[in-house]
Amino acid sequence: MSGEVHVRATLARPFLAATTTAQVAYALIEVQPTQVLARVRVPVNVSFVLDRSGSMKGEKIERVRQATSMAIDRLDRQDLVSVVTFDHRTEVLIPASPVQDSRSIKDRISRIRDAGGTRIAPALERGLREIEKDRSGAIRRMVLLTDGQTEHEADCLRRAEDAGRMGVPITALGVGKDWNEDLLIEIGNRSGGTADQITHPDQITTYFQNTVQQAQNSAVQNSVMNLRLVQGVTPRAVWQVLPMINNLGYQPISERDVSVPLGELETGQGRTLLIELLVDPRAVGSYRVGQVEVTYDVPVLGLLGEKARVDLLLTFTADQAQLNQVNPGVMNIVEKVSAFKLQTRALQDIAQGDVQGGTQKLKSAVTRLLSQGELELAETMQKEIANLEQSGQLSSEGQKTIKFQGRKTVRLSDIDIP
């Protein structure tokens, strides 16, 4: 059987100049599960690892209780759930078990109380142990939520690497202001998951429910994009643009072929990538410069090693009218990725002590964001530029906003490209 995944390629510029110099070309690659899988529901095995330290007191701990209970309402008898709570100690509140008596589970969740300090690593380890109890092939997920700093960060990263080897992406969520965003980002990256900032406790419910729903919709697994290019075409970068901008990198297969692991594909969203290529000069004419092939499994349907392909075609011309043609949707995404790269380099400069260089890059990023209509993020950056010019430092809250909101400037509406 085939047709479970569709691949589409859209060029930023359909025509390149027939010149004597190399040029950069951008292609937007959409990898989307089709309607064949719209009603396929896979079982999930999710562990909630929840901070109950003293700083969670009040609305934060109440929202955590509500959010966890509402996320469990989305699970049924084929799913497994576990809940691990932590302060300076770790407790397995709900051992991994099928969701058969949700009332009893939610009753125990309602009794979570705040106390103590924050130690994340032992809680991650216990959550992984609970997930590992089941070998049924269910989609595995861990949700980590914290509002504080932790000791033994290296241990946290080792547990995240364990999660990556076990196929357990961690959704690492920081709520409030006093947490280490770099640690959570690295936990997400090393586990194959993601990290995000929760600016207000009332957003916790949405994050928890989205994580469960995304897992339930991930019937397509083990997907890999293989990019095969002809001589004279070199890959420069592969960016994920949804749900967050992220440099995926790539693994060389041969001199011109590269591979990018994509993992699970969520029905209704899939993966959207921006490929940056360096193309050597060519004479006037149309050329097939490469092929994108996505291999994937759908275990719930007994499908392994299925493939979907699309060719990359470029036309070289000397016609100025043709050269002026651009795809505005793809070019908009290219600009948003460029703004994100500027922000990232700015923060790196500042971290290394080059405040002046970082400030100039942030100013350039603000100009791009304003032209894209990203007014709120641009305003935050302008405030942080003022902080840099006055004190030579970024505020903790502003730095978090730049790091997380700067990755979310591409939206589903931007991908609606004819």
From TrEMBL:
<dbReference type="Pfam" id="PF00092">
    <property type="entry name" value="VWA"/>
</dbReference>
<dbReference type="InterPro" id="IPR036465">
    <property type="entry name" value="vWFA_dom_sf"/>
</dbReference>
<feature type="domain" description="VWFA">
    <location>
        <begin position="45"/>
        <end position="224"/>
    </location>
</feature>
<dbReference type="InterPro" id="IPR051266">
    <property type="entry name" value="CLCR"/>
</dbReference>
<protein>
    <submittedName>
        <fullName>VWA domain-containing protein</fullName>
    </submittedName>
</protein>
<dbReference type="InterPro" id="IPR002035">
    <property type="entry name" value="VWF_A"/>
</dbReference>
